[in-house]
Specification:
314 residues
């Protein structure tokens, strides 16, 4: 049985107070200065976390064997510093009026989300690119009542604050962990003919589907394909990029229609199709992806599984 709240500790509260203090400081700064400081401050954090930074470089080198060690290091460093930019942008954007927000973040292709194909709602297929949190805010600013499927943070104070910021304009969070039957919770939301955002590129620990990603086996959750097929709603790939002037651009791609009939074969093929979008985006701009995630944490399990099920190789 899932818990509605996590156990609170004094350390959790101290972490929350520290977060609130940082929020106040960042929000007092001009937008571009805040983003610059976010990048600058987080850069040296890679030294005490050298093992994680080394793993990032290892993963990048395996995904891009043609790149030199210097290029690999720069991609890793840019990806690492982007985490600081994300934090600063998120805090600044979530404190703005809708008019101010549009000056710093826009959606290209927003009309696709209101086209006839989206009349019954849909699923936003998004990953950890550039600033994924910005699209959640932008969707609300542009008038969409959306929910996001996310993982609950262990610190209940911080979790509550992050979700408050995510939905300052509108929306709600559905939890993929520590919640009973998240699949059916998502189904109930989609029955309201609304949009549901799913971060698809996280390591999966249960109900996985083994699919090659950047040349290595990775565990993907088939929930996006399952929901799209069961509910017969389109999937809208969304990628977020950052222009030279710092403006965030959320690009909505043409909708992908699911197979009309449910089968394990269709679920797998549809999931593979969605994975290819991520591969394309990573290859176009590898530094924009969050390499800090241990995306291939279960690679050995995937290889062992495919040895026993060779028919499931892509």
């Amino acid at each position: 049985m899932a818990r509605d709240a996590f156990q609170k500790t004094p350390l959790h509260f101290l972490q929350y107070i520290a977060l609130k203090a940082v929020c106040l400081f960042v929000r007092a700064l001009p937008y571009r200065l805040a983003v610059w400081m976010g990048r600058t401050i987080i850069a040296p954090v890679r030294w005490p976390m050298h093992k994680r930074f080394a793993r990032m470089q290892h993963d990048i080198a395996r995904a891009f064997p043609d790149k030199s060690p210097q290029e690999v290091h720069q991609i890793a460093l840019d990806s690492w510093c982007n985490m600081g930019a994300i934090f600063a942008e998120f805090l600044k954007l979530s404190s703005m009026s809708k008019a101010q927000f549009r000056k710093h973040c826009r959606i290209d292709g927003v009309e696709k989300l209101t086209s006839p194909v989206a009349k019954n709602g849909g699923i936003i297929h998004i990953g950890h690119f550039t600033n994924w949190e910005a699209f959640g805010l932008a969707a609300s600013v542009y008038g969409f009542e959306k929910a996001v499927l996310a993982q609950r943070i262990d610190n209940p104070y911080v979790d509550k604050e992050i979700n408050r910021l995510r939905h300052v304009f509108s929306g709600c969070t559905l939890y993929s962990n520590h919640q009973d039957k998240p699949f059916f919770t998502c189904m109930r939301w989609l029955k309201k003919k609304q949009m549901l955002g799913i971060l698809f590129d996280q390591n999966t620990t249960a109900g996985e589907m083994w699919i090659p990603f950047l040349g290595r086996m990775a565990a993907f959750a088939p929930i996006t394909a399952l929901l799209a097929i069961k509910m017969q709603v389109p999937v809208f790939p969304v990628n977020v990029s950052r222009e030279k002037n710092g403006q965030l651009v959320c690009t909505v791609y043409d909708p992908i229609l699911p197979p009309l009939e449910y089968s394990l074969k269709h679920v797998r093929e549809f999931t593979q199709l969605l994975v290819r979008y991520y591969e394309q985006w990573v290859r176009q701009d590898p530094a924009s992806w969050l390499w800090a995630h241990n995306r291939w944490k279960r690679e050995a399990e995937g290889l062992a599984y495919l040895q026993q099920h060779p028919q499931e190789r892509a």
